[in-house]
Design brief:
The protein is mainly alpha-helical and 476 residues long. 72% of the residues lie in helices and 0% in strands. It has 32 helices and no strands. Helix 27 runs parallel beside helix 30.
Length: 476
């Protein structure tokens, strides 16, 4: 007999103990079921199939606090594994019983009930709606106002799980008055509580402009910026995520963040941490810069380019590099001045190296290509483009050559430098399809120079000259 069969046999043995006359036996049986369910998804399924759930909750409101905690733990252990198991918890009528437990005098019972409701709500919008329909949200908002830190944490986490699925669910949480109470806890000294509070606010703010504006009205700025300097990495990450979810919606919200010192704080945060903690901050800068020329310049003036370039070099995860590449593309895509700021930070060769690296994922290659294109199409700072002439693959080269074809006809000094640096020689070596855009760019560049200069730098011209030398008959 396998270990799993033994455990499933134990499940059947525990069932009658839930109806025992001795309270401590009922409580211990519920706790044992919770531990089995928590341990393994198949055991959780076995508990559901054995029809134990109705027995587990049938007299829950009348039971003592120890049984209530054990039963909530068992329901949580079952619900956590999958939407199907969470649905089984809903169908047996457990949500109504858990909501009654949220009104219990004992904070531990409230905590257990809140936790179980959170594990149901986190799976999808339908299950989250079931939790809302059971009347949990107003009581969860009351729970975050309780003095017990552990209860505050779990209630905030559950509100976050409810809010994340849709604007309508988030609005339900807002209508219960959650934002004001959550906002007050941003400065709480408990790091784990701050993580959950920031997560809940982020899950509300992400859905719409109106919900994001409610965050600003709740005066979370500049208080939330202190979280970006917190010693706890998850507080930093969730704080940056909240700022990102607000910044992405409109130029006005991004401008408010800039005016509050938010961009400078995010840049400092990116510079002071490593790994996935950087990701929401990187994306915040990209969203802010994407909105307008002025906001992009605010990121540049706050010295945001260098930390983003560092992320491209230092980070090992492709999705973080991809986010940094995307953000740099958003900064550089507006005007020639924006592109120049990005180019002088030596970003272009770094992006190119990542693009041609065979180890880079397809998504990372796509993001770096798009960023290069965005920056190159605006960049008229030729010294930064020069190295790319000798290294860029064909699909990037056309954008590089295109920029030279825009600048050289109007700049005599640049035309001279283009010859002495070997640029004109390199252009003559490029094989372009006749009639293609690249060929048009090359023709435009060649038309900037006398015909004999272009011939001189064309491939094979030295052999032609040597042949002429050999065939030359000196006049004596």
């Amino acid at each position: 007999m396998s270990q799993r069969q033994v455990l499933q046999g134990i499940v059947c043995l525990l069932r009658p103990l839930l109806l025992d006359v001795v309270p401590s036996i009922r409580q211990t049986a519920a706790l044992a079921l919770g531990r089995l369910a928590d341990y393994d998804v198949e055991l959780a399924e076995a508990i559901v199939k054995a029809g134990i759930l109705p027995q587990l909750i049938c007299s829950l409101p009348e039971e003592n606090r120890y049984y209530k905690k054990a039963a909530a733990f068992a329901l949580r252990g079952i619900a956590k594994h999958s939407p199907q198991l969470a649905q089984a918890v809903v169908q047996c009528g457990a949500l109504e019983m858990l909501v009654i437990c949220l009104e219990d005098f004992d904070p531990g019972v409230k905590e257990g009930a809140s936790w179980a409701l959170g594990y149901v709500a986190r799976h999808n919008a339908e299950l989250s709606q079931a939790v809302v329909d059971a009347g949990a949200v107003p009581l969860l908002v009351l729970c975050i106002q309780e003095p017990e830190i552990a209860l505050k944490r779990i209630a905030a986490s559950t509100l976050s799980d409810i809010s994340k699925h849709s604007p309508e669910l988030a609005q339900t949480v807002v209508d219960a008055g959650a934002i004001a109470h959550l906002a007050q806890m941003i400065l709480n000294p408990d790091a784990k509580l701050k993580r959950q509070v920031l997560s809940a606010l982020s899950q509300i703010a992400k859905h719409s402009v109106d919900l994001a504006e409610l965050m600003v009205e709740a005066e979370i700025f500049p208080v939330v910026l202190t979280c970006l300097k917190d010693s706890d990495e998850y507080v930093k990450k969730n704080g940056a995520t909240l700022i990102r979810e607000i910044a992405k919606h409109t130029p006005e919200l991004s401008q408010f963040i800039v005016n509050s010192g938010g961009v400078a704080a995010v840049i400092d945060c990116i510079g002071s941490c490593k790994g996935t903690v950087r990701l929401p901050g990187i994306m915040t800068l990209g969203y802010v810069a994407a909105h307008s020329e002025n906001l992009s310049m605010a990121v540049i003036v706050s010295k945001g380019i260098s930390p983003l370039c560092d992320c491209l070099i230092e980070e090992h995860e492709d999705h973080i590099k991809a986010a940094a590449a995307w953000a740099l593309g958003q900064i550089g895509r507006h005007t020639a001045e924006h592109a120049r700021h990005v180019a002088v930070a030596n970003v272009l060769p770094t992006l190119l190296d990542i693009f041609v690296d065979t180890r880079s994922s397809e998504d990372l290659k796509m993001k770096t290509k798009k960023a290069l294109k965005n920056i190159l199409q605006r960049c008229t700072y030729l010294p930064a483009l020069e190295p790319l002439l000798h290294e860029a693959p064909h699909n990037i080269m056309k954008h590089v050559i295109g920029q030279f074809s825009k600048v050289l006809p109007h700049d005599s000094k640049a035309r001279r430098l283009f010859v002495t640096s070997g640029g004109l020689k390199k252009v003559q070596e490029i094989k372009a399809e006749p009639g293609s855009l690249l060929q048009e760019y090359i023709n435009t560049i060649n038309n900037c120079y006398p015909e004999e200069i272009v011939r001189y730098y064309s491939p094979g011209y030295s052999e032609i000259l040597l042949e002429r030398v050999e065939n030359y008959q000196p006049v004596l």
